[in-house]
Amino acid sequence: MTKLTVIIVNYNVKFYVEQCLLSLRKALAHIDAQVYVVDNHSHDGSVEYLQERFPEVNIIACMHNNGFAYANNLAIKQSQSQYVLLLNPDTFVAENAIQTMLDFMDEHPLAGGAGVQMLGADGQKAMESRRGLPSPMVSFYKMSGLCARFPQSKRFGKYYLSYLPWDAPARIEVISGACMMIRREVLDKIGLLDEDYFMYGEDIDLSCRILKAGYENWYLPCQILHYKGESTHKSSFRYVHVFYQAMLIFFRKHYRHTRFWVSLPIKAAIYFKACAALLSIQTRALQRALALRPRRRPQPVYRFFGSECACLAIEKLARHKGLDVQCTVANEQTLPLGHATEHNVFTQPSVMVYDISSYSYQTILHIMSINPQRHVSLGLFNPDTQLLITTNDIIK
Questions:
Q1: Residue 142 maps to a domain
Q2: Where is the Glycosyltransferase 2-like domain (predicted)?
Q3: Are 279 and 222 members of one domain?
Q4: What is the mean pLDDT of the chain?
Q5: How far apart (Å, rounded) are the C-alpha atoms in residues 378 and 389?
Q6: pLDDT-based confidence at 301, cuts 50/70/90?
Q7: Residue 24 domain-assigned (yes or no)
Q8: What is the pLDDT of residues 317-336, one digit of tens each?
């Protein structure tokens, strides 16, 4: 039996998937693993693009988009492995991350699932890396703002388990589906992802079922980067509908026996949040439509660190696209801390671009996590494809 199956679900983000697969090539170099990309009926040529560049990857080209859970289940059913890793397409992993996860799972037979420390494109640790089950009271503390007001409280801060240390393994309740390793024997016992969830919520449901089956869920401090994260489609009507519908499905499935006086306020809060989100979207759309002089966003400075050859390519790309680029010839031996070497505070938007032939993914993640700043985000440049990928743009 294969040690590990990695599953990535793609929908029109072929360049992010390419970046993710390149990081997996390094992370899986000494692991008996198979990789599946399940394409949810993309219309950007994803299947052909990825098949040509990654012949070792198993690609399932769905004829319809039936959702995230359905797509993952297709690959799980086709695969045979001791462990399954669900991985978002807009991520990349440190070279040591997957081996660290496997070693931990092997050493802890009661661990049914494990997640990792996720970084956003600005280097901030994602709160979704560790979460508690959204019970009625935990959900109330989150929606009422008590969770944010008292993050170190074991009572009020349980939604994000924000009182736990970031640098040590810890038992948690909910693992993010952006990077979720699951023991195969657990899936055989509890079943696959619940396909009632189109997108969002299936990871919470699966985590809950793992715990109910008597297994443990763990957070591990190894790092990945989740490029889009909070910025993905949250300003769309579709996101609001799918996200809050998932919350209702979870609540009805796992807390349907909750007393009426407890369940009613929670359901009301879910509907209120959804309505407030929709109203906010409409308000912003109206403001944009009526604005005679829309506010211009400041253009970022691209600060590049890489080989001399890559610098020349970036400068050429900058001239073609009209970008403000500052190049530094460096690698992780000559400048191991990259832009964090001088501990500068950046007051204007800055994209720190790293040449992936000069810096390892693990080093890049370490640099971004040293001193995360509001105006700083990450970009990666691949000299082979001449692609510059940032959290918002694919520049080529």
A1: no
A2: 5-190
A3: no
A4: 88
A5: 9
A6: very high
A7: yes
A8: 999 999 999 999 999 999 99
Residues 268 and 366 in one domain: no
> Is the per-residue pLDDT at 247 higher than 80?
no
Band of pLDDT at residue 257, cut at 50, 70 and 90: low
Print the domain residue range for 341: 301-395
Domain total of the chain:
3
44 has a pLDDT exceeding 50: yes
Which string of b and e fits 142-169 if b means at least 16 CB within 10 Å?
bbeebbeeeeeeeebbbbbbbebeeeeb
Regarding whether 389 and 339 lie in a shared domain, the answer is yes
Instruction: Give the model's pLDDT for residue 201.
Output: 77
